[in-house]
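Structure ticket #2291
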Amino acid sequence: MGKPNSLRLIDDDSVTEQSSPKSFPDFQRIFPNEEACRTYLYTARFPNGFACPYCNWTGKPHRFQNQTDMLRCRSCKRNTRLTGGTIMQKSKVPLNTWFWGAFLVTSLTPGMSALQFQKMLGIKTIRDGVQHATQASCCDGTART
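Resolution: structure written out below.
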């Protein structure tokens, strides 16, 4: 496993470990773009490589060029989204904005208003995302992050 407070990042052939971001420059270095966020999310969701949630096939999934969070099992041909089952699932907000928001919430002192958070992220509303998360946690007793 990894060091405490470290992130496991992978590409298709390798795994690297990095420290969790402690500052905004660290955050920008670790998550400079959407691809870095997708890579982190893939590693978090499939720590031992892709395993189809439908047929348990393991291996390299098919990736779509125009749907970057979609993975297709090469065995059963069913699709799985990297963001499936998370608050980001049906969001049109870019992944790097979600990651930035998570960094802000976990690194700033408590007491930030929803309006201030919304302005810092440059998004119009957080109501839909919060409603989705609340419904997910209320319906099955678990919160998905």
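Closing remark: The helical segments are 24-30, 34-45, 95-107, 114-121, 127-140.
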